[in-house]
Amino acid sequence: MSIEPQPQPSSESNEFAPTLRFKLYTIIFGTSTPAGKRFDLVLIYLIVFSVLALMLDSIRWVSDLYGPYIFAFEWLFTILFTAEYLVRVYCSPKRWAYVFSFYGLVDLISILPSYVSLFVPGANFLLAIRLLRVLRIFRILKLVRYLSEANVLIRAVMMSRRKISIFAMSVLVLSVIFGSLMYIVEGPENGFSSIPKSIYWTIVTITTVGYGDITPHTVLGQIIAATAMLTGYSILAVPTGIFTAELAQEMQRDRRIRNCINCSRSGHEADSKFCRFCGAGMEEKSTPESKD
Amino acid sequence: MSIEPQPQPSSESNEFAPTLRFKLYTIIFGTSTPAGKRFDLVLIYLIVFSVLALMLDSIRWVSDLYGPYIFAFEWLFTILFTAEYLVRVYCSPKRWAYVFSFYGLVDLISILPSYVSLFVPGANFLLAIRLLRVLRIFRILKLVRYLSEANVLIRAVMMSRRKISIFAMSVLVLSVIFGSLMYIVEGPENGFSSIPKSIYWTIVTITTVGYGDITPHTVLGQIIAATAMLTGYSILAVPTGIFTAELAQEMQRDRRIRNCINCSRSGHEADSKFCRFCGAGMEEKSTPESKD
Amino acid sequence: MSIEPQPQPSSESNEFAPTLRFKLYTIIFGTSTPAGKRFDLVLIYLIVFSVLALMLDSIRWVSDLYGPYIFAFEWLFTILFTAEYLVRVYCSPKRWAYVFSFYGLVDLISILPSYVSLFVPGANFLLAIRLLRVLRIFRILKLVRYLSEANVLIRAVMMSRRKISIFAMSVLVLSVIFGSLMYIVEGPENGFSSIPKSIYWTIVTITTVGYGDITPHTVLGQIIAATAMLTGYSILAVPTGIFTAELAQEMQRDRRIRNCINCSRSGHEADSKFCRFCGAGMEEKSTPESKD
Amino acid sequence: MSIEPQPQPSSESNEFAPTLRFKLYTIIFGTSTPAGKRFDLVLIYLIVFSVLALMLDSIRWVSDLYGPYIFAFEWLFTILFTAEYLVRVYCSPKRWAYVFSFYGLVDLISILPSYVSLFVPGANFLLAIRLLRVLRIFRILKLVRYLSEANVLIRAVMMSRRKISIFAMSVLVLSVIFGSLMYIVEGPENGFSSIPKSIYWTIVTITTVGYGDITPHTVLGQIIAATAMLTGYSILAVPTGIFTAELAQEMQRDRRIRNCINCSRSGHEADSKFCRFCGAGMEEKSTPESKD
Fold first, then answer.
1. What is the number of CB-based contacts under 8 A between chain B and chain D?
2. ipTM
3. Which of B96, B267, B276, D210 could form a cystine bridge with C209, CB 3.0-4.6 A?
4. Is C292 part of a structural domain of the chain?
């Protein structure tokens, strides 16, 4: 489940004693201490604000009026994120492992464009790269992973992964067949200008999005379209059924797993705060994993 | 679950004896007596009619033709609701608690605009406030809460609240990413005039609403759009799965909780009218909660 | 579950001996005999063809070309359905009970317009009444009711009826609130010309249909619209959850009910053809109800 | 479940000894040997590439620029598929059974158009037939069938088939009734030009696709449309409920069926790799069926 190597910092190790570097490590990479939690919250706010700044900058009249202020904020965020990146590299037990990890690369790439734009004029095409910063929001999800609720959801998604991909492949095959049929029946004169475009239309129809930018005009086309709609409407049941069945199973398993620390009996609901056999308080399941 | 403080009127208290004020209290705030139920029904009809009057008044030709009649009805409703508000304040055991409760404020705010419009001309902007009266319809839901059916639904929603909010956050992150991508790929010339507008488009697409006011025109844009659609179509399974799994669990628990009064065995279906072990009649579950 | 009174023809009764009338009764109203099944099949085909004729007649060029032929078919169907109606009245044990039953009235009303059009010119407005014939297709559903599969479905729908109506009411309240908000925010200049129209737009949006004939143009309107979409997308989970949970329960109950005739043990799947304890063949559950 | 006759090649048979023909048979029709799996993978890639070539050819500017290259690839694929077809016929134990089987006919029909186009000019109408090649992608699904995941899905679909068809019929009846109503209420002047077109509109609305090419303009029409939307939105629950309930049952049955080879106890999860009673490794369920 983990994307990057997560070296478990052991306090027994001589080389990695509770120095400043280790303290920084527990704050930046850890989630169990109050300081670590606070750092994560601040980081999330910074990411959200930097994404908001980018969004506002994309609205013409806002950018015309407040362009310089947004520019200043952009640089403030860039400097802060640069500092964070350098500290992360500094305090990582295995520096190169972090640098080449998924989030390590995202962290680097999302701060580079601002520096590049200093030397190379024409920041337009660089905007694309700066938006990668949005990906950092997924860190919130990483925090969230430690809640048992999210764990059940993620496990259910993981369990249903293979079944969902079989379903997705069937949808693609269906889209190719319906798309080809519509291309032949309706033809370029009704907007179905090529098979790929017809497949795009089929996906719009089967997923019940229905923009209406391309619509069938012939009677046969409308019959095929109605069939595609009814198919899409019915097979929507398949992913829902898969996920629901897996989730119900996961939730049952979760209840079985959870044991009381006092009497060690299982079978408690996920939201129980007290053991239903001996009345002892039940702690939140805390897995001693490190963060990021 | 309760939004406002609900003082339990105890008949033992000297100060709060079965006077007129207490009688009014049981009628207006209570639901267990026939008079209390009748009062609630009348109130619901009044609210529905006042909302209908507001709706009709918003249609130009109706307002042109029957304006004066609707105006008269408006004032009738205002006077009735004012009377109700004053009686509510009068008979509440803790008056200020009611006045500053959620429904107390809604009750006050929804009658004020009519009076303000007497002194200040230009009722147009006040219309907005008068519409708050619609919120009073939610009182019907409060009545409904006492049915065991609604209880199961509400508990299932409460149980799945945390899981649903994790899901909602993931949808928002997805919308930001897809929206930014589409802004870069399609650009202002195809209607994606800013990132917030692109995010609006992404929500329209992911929820499979698909207005068609903004549609992708480039090939890459259509590929990303198709991906967004398929994503939206598949993750629709997540809230459904969460709610279904929780509801199934709640319904099972509901069956376990319900005991026969005669033989006190549990395990009865929610709709059983007779105990399946001893044949004794089973009463509706009635919780002695006060209303509003 | 039955809409009309269904007198159980008892062969013991002197007055209602196995005469021609009783034979006709078993054929027309019964479903257990081969003749009764055959009659129903023929009737279904006739209804389907008469509906198809009406459909084709509504297409201008078909009606221009083949008008007289369709007209002839119309009269053929009218005469056949008239004959069926008269025989039904003749062989019913309680004639008036049939005549005033739901399907008795549908049968009468669906043949009347053709006769009325003989004396009164201007068949245009009568078309509306003739289309009631479509309702007879629901007889197919009556036939289908005897299959155990449909029984489970109908019972699950019946069980979830109360929960679904609570949900429907919440959706209506939501539509009123979102509709009023949009009317205030967007106003008549953006197509939201009245509150009822805004409510229509809200229903189009919440159900994720999304025609795109009315779309929000202001930023605040788009934010409210996005909220309405996400709400609609999430609460879609509620009816699905309700129905799924009820259906799962019904299917389990169905299995519990089904007993082997040989060893009378229960717990068989709905599709089992042999008892899994003694190996004896298991018959289809046949309830000795009369038809229509 | 099998569409075509699948003769089980028995190595005991004298006539069908492990000759070249039998070797080819195990490679082309079999899936258990590494060679058979490799052959299937190559075939899938070829089909995907030939479908991609057809798609690209349908885009005008691609066909204008790279027409000759695509033409060459088309012929390459045709020759390869012809060779495959001939070898299939050669090594089939029962040749005519293969030739007249579903995939035998698809194989033949999908290579014919290219040859016919040599003698008959005007390949436009032949394009339709060549697209049948897309159907061969379903062979991937055949491969996939051997995964236990897909087995559970297919069994759940099979189990829910009858219930789903009852649902589909109800949707069709609903569409006819709503369609007829809208034809009468809105009429040809608002785009509802005939009953079949109104039924098409109803299907677009009930499945929540909502193109917006035809929309109601009268108040009564919008009320009926809103009813149709809410109906469609609610009954979406039915297929989902059916499939979910069946799938949950199938998954439970799957767990019951799976036995440990060491201690032969059942009740293992589908993804367990080790027996939870004795710790012995558990193999993938492999059914010794032949392929294609």
1. 9
2. 0.74
3. D210
4. no
